[in-house]
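Let's sit down with a protein and look at its sequence and fold side by side. Please make up or recall a protein chain and show it to me in full. Label the sequence line and the structure token line clearly, so we can match residues to local backbone shapes. Go ahead whenever you are ready, and we will take it from there.
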Amino acid sequence: MSAEEFREHGHALIDWVANYLEKVESYPIQSRVRPGEIRAKLPEAAPEHPEPFESILRDLDEIILPGITHWQSPGWFAYFPGNASPPAILGELASAGLNVQGMLWSTSPAATELESVVMDWLVGLLGLPPAWKSTGPGGGVIQPSASDSTHTALVVAGTRRLGGPRSPRWSPTPQLRPTPPWRRVLGSRATSTSARWTWTMFTQCRPRPCEPLSPPT
């Protein structure tokens, strides 16, 4: 795809997304397709030759949209909010175009420093103590999903409770770590299962005997 073709098809795709956002409330919120219905409309083997971009847009309308549960709909009240605003969509487009690999500061300094600044903004917006900022002893990072953030928080909490890797109580082998009553996490019945299984993985403790996740009393 040449740069000129990219511009042409990019404009067409932006128009498609804009039209979708304008009429998203007209779609049934939950997909009405049956299991396997989308798969049956797709080729069994990967295409060996490219298709016209117009065909891809047509597939979005005829195959993909019927199988979409519309989290963007104003009538969506299940699970948790998952909305994306038009500015956020454009930001994601710019991010995809730059294709930054941000595992280290040196791999893209702008990615690391921008993330740190935005996380510090969030500290202020949430009214958290200044110590949570990256300019102090704290500092946050963006996690790719709710499950990842739950995993990180619970592992850090367990590590802190044991005194960290420098503590004489700490062992990198879960089976050798002490087993006091601290291995109990309180949560509601609506808590994500990722919390239960993260704690189980971290402590090597089976859910039922050790009850790593219990409803609050």
